[in-house]
Amino acid sequence: MAAFRGDPVRSRFFATFLFLLVLAIASLVLSASGGGSMATCTVSTNISPTSAVADHLASPPGNQVKFMATGNVSGSMCPLTPDVAGTWSTSDLSDTTINTSMAQEQNVALVTCVNAAAAPITIGNSGTVRGKRYPSAMLTCK
Q1: Number of folded domains in the chain?
Q2: Which range marks the domain in which residue 8 is found?
Q3: 51 plus 91 within the same structural domain
Q4: pLDDT band at 12 (very low <50, low <70, confident <90, very high)
Q5: C-alpha angle 132/137/140, rounded to 5°?
Q6: With pLDDT > 70 as the criterion, what percentage of the chain qualifies?
Q7: Does residue 65 sit in the same domain as residue 125?
Q8: pLDDT digits over 42-82, tens only?
Q9: pTM
Q10: One domain, residues 73 and 131
């Protein structure tokens, strides 16, 4: 900048040029190392099957459906919110029963149709994965 000491416009231009040059080089270095991309977090939750049909007149397992809650977390900037093991529920306690005592399988509920239901029954799990709730599943008891 000594060459532009007497010219303030050229000095300001040169300083701006140097700043932008350094910024461009830093940007190139970061993008080449993978640090230039935005850190992300993807959290997915699912109950499977999402819908099912069981016959209340059938013998087990024909009158039963096994629902499983699963979650997946990927990415570099995921929240530190702890996962919560939830409680299984049914919207129709008179036509279904829920068994969650399958100790060897976590996040699993065996739902039994004990009567035919007039409308699909909502099966849910109150748990969360990194703060994201599980969606509901539907069961038709015929």
Answers
A1: 2
A2: 2-33
A3: yes
A4: confident
A5: 170
A6: 80
A7: yes
A8: 999 999 999 999 999 999 999 999 999 999 999 888 888 88
A9: 0.68
A10: yes
